[in-house]
Design a protein that fits this description.
Layout lengths: L2 E5 L8 H14 L9 H17 L4 H14 L3 E4 L10 H7 L6 H13 L4 H17 L3 E9 L5 H8 L6 E5 L2 E2 L2 E2 L14 H17 L5 E2 L18 H14 L2 E5 L1 H5 L9 H10 L3 E4 L12 H10 L4 E6 L2 E6 L2
Parallel strand pairs: 1-2, 2-3, 3-4, 4-7, 7-8, 8-9
Antiparallel strand pairs: 5-6, 10-11
The chain binds zinc ion (2 copies).
The site of one zinc ion (ZN) has 4 residues, from loops.
């Protein structure tokens, strides 16, 4: 059974590149008749993009493009998980744990946070819950999730924030190391001067803490620190991979094969890497599948390939979630 448990409806920062990508997504579903780059084409595109901007990412129209793509690709269960940092209600949480000091990094990250934190969590939740029945009638199960950032020491604050809503599942992610959002392309030069092995040790320590916090139904993209292709000799990471696998098994926490870095970032590799995946499989860690798509046309991307990968490793079941309960579904 094909599932995609890690999808986003929208993500800033808002730029002309973002407009262009949004236009591409709209065009995927409703291609314009006009020839590209003609005056008629740009006028029509502008009307279409304005409509999307005015109605916002929580309109039925936008959400149902995800449904349409699920039906095209035969995806039976879809989990939408916007980032926790999208929501005004979480500002004090992020400002407490991210570096938003007056340093260069802090100022850049404060600007970023202001650009991406544009919505209310309750609008998001209402949109997904309202759509569940409509999707069900078309044969696709829709689940409400959230991708929340883990920071060392955040447990009580995060628990309080997450308890505002009844989720189908909660994803824990590590996107920050000592307050630094390492997947932000604007800060990637920081990798150049780092001791990579030490940085990976620090990173996996935080990932292990996230797993052991037991706040999460699954922990996402376990090795996303590789995003810009900075990684020591992978053999050196083997003991760290084993530690993570053990933590997942001991806490009965799931993870995912996430295609996001494969098709959207310089590293062009799934998370986890093939070596990491085989360590996790040896330990019997359980998986769900995800495209980590930020646009409806990318929904389900590489889910079929990754399903096959799991099958080859001997898996017969996938992890899905309903009201914070794990439900195993046959792969076939
Ligand atoms: Zn993520
Ligand atoms: Zn994500």
């Amino acid at each position: 059974m094909k599932v995609d448990y890690h999808l986003h409806l929208e993500e800033g920062p808002y730029s002309f590149r973002w407009l262009d990508r949004t236009n591409q997504a709209l065009n995927h579903f409703h291609p314009l008749d006009e020839k590209p780059h003609t005056i008629e084409w740009i006028k029509k595109s502008e009307i279409r993009i304005s409509n999307r901007l005015n109605k916002g990412c929580y309109s039925e129209e936008w959400l149902d493009l995800y449904l349409q793509e699920s039906l095209t690709k035969g995806i039976k269960e879809v989990g939408i998980v916007d980032h926790l940092y999208r929501f005004h209600e979480t500002r004090s949480y992020y400002e407490k744990y991210m570096d938003v000091t007056s340093s260069d990094l802090g100022a850049l990250q404060q600007k970023w946070l202001d650009q991406v934190m544009t919505e209310s969590i309750f609008d998001f939740v209402e949109t997904i819950n309202k759509a569940k029945e409509r999707w069900q009638k078309k044969g696709v199960v829709l689940r409400l999730g959230i991708e929340s950032d883990y920071f060392p020491g955040c447990e009580e604050d995060l628990k309080k924030l997450l308890s505002m809503v009844e989720w189908d599942y909660i994803i824990g992610s590590v996107h920050f190391l000592k307050g630094w959002g390492f997947d932000n392309p604007e800060t990637q030069d920081r990798f150049e001067s780092m001791d990579l092995l030490k940085t990976y040790e620090d990173f996996f320590e935080v990932v292990e803490m996230a797993i052991r916090s037991e706040l999460f139904d699954f922990v996402a993209h376990l090795d996303n620190l590789k995003v810009f292709n900075h990684r020591p000799d992978e053999k050196e990471l083997f003991p760290l991979y084993q530690k993570i696998a053990k933590a997942l098994v001991q806490t009965d926490t799931a993870t995912e094969i996430n295609a996001g870095l494969f098709y959207r970032y310089p590293v062009q590799e799934m998370c986890p890497s093939p070596m990491f995946l085989s360590v996790l499989a040896d330990h019997g860690v359980v998986f769900t599948l995800s495209s980590d798509s930020h646009f409806p046309d990318d929904l389900g991307k590489h889910v079929s390939d990754n399903l096959l990968t799991l099958k080859k490793l001997g898996y017969t079941e996938l992890v899905t979630f309903n009201k914070r309960k794990r439900v195993m579904k046959p792969i076939q």
